[in-house]
Amino acid sequence: MDDFVRVCSVDDVPDDTALAVEISGRPIAVFKVGDGFSAVEDICPHQGASFEGGPLDGEIVTCPLHGWRLNVITGESLDAPGVKIETYDVEIVDGDVYVRI
């Protein structure tokens, strides 16, 4: 698992919003999406807010600050075409969430 870093237990990730973590100084938002997990840059491109506390509906998170919506699988904004946040590979090993940085 080159470049993968353990960030939390699968049980730490809420069902309906992000878990905000930091890896090597990078803010990362981890989401439980269906039976899997995703991780994205935890900086809303609108005004820099964290996604933690913003509602997750399927693959779409809504920023709690001003309501921008982004897909947590692709990183694409639903409200600003062409705007995209960084996404990260996620692996689950023995009940722990690992993110590739």
Count of folded domains:
1
CATH topology: Rieske Iron-sulfur Protein
The total beta strand count reads: 10
The description of the largest β-sheet is: 4 strands, antiparallel
What's the level 1 CATH class?
Answer: Mainly Beta
**How many DSSP H or I helices?**
0
The H-level CATH homologous superfamily, spelled out, is Rieske [2Fe-2S] iron-sulphur domain
| Shape descriptor | globular
Would you write up a description of this structure?
- The protein has about 100 residues and is mainly beta.
- The chain has one domain: Rieske Iron-sulfur Protein (3-layer Sandwich), CATH 2.102.10.10.
- The chain is about 0% helix and about 45% strand.
- The chain has strands at about 5-10, 20-25, 25-35, 35-40, 55, 60, 70, 85-90, 90-95, 95-100.
- The chain has a four-stranded antiparallel sheet, with no helix packed on it. It has a three-stranded antiparallel sheet with strand order 1-10-9, with no helix packed on it. Strands 5-6-7 form a three-stranded antiparallel sheet, with no helix packed on it.
- The chain is globular and about 35 Å long.
In short:
The protein is mainly beta.
Summarize the helices and strands and which ones pair or pack.
Layout: E1 4-9, E2 19-23, E3 26-33, E4 36-41, E5 56-57, E6 60-62, E7 69-71, E8 87-88, E9 90-93, E10 96-100
Antiparallel strand pairs: 1-10, 2-3, 3-4, 4-8, 5-6, 6-7, 9-10
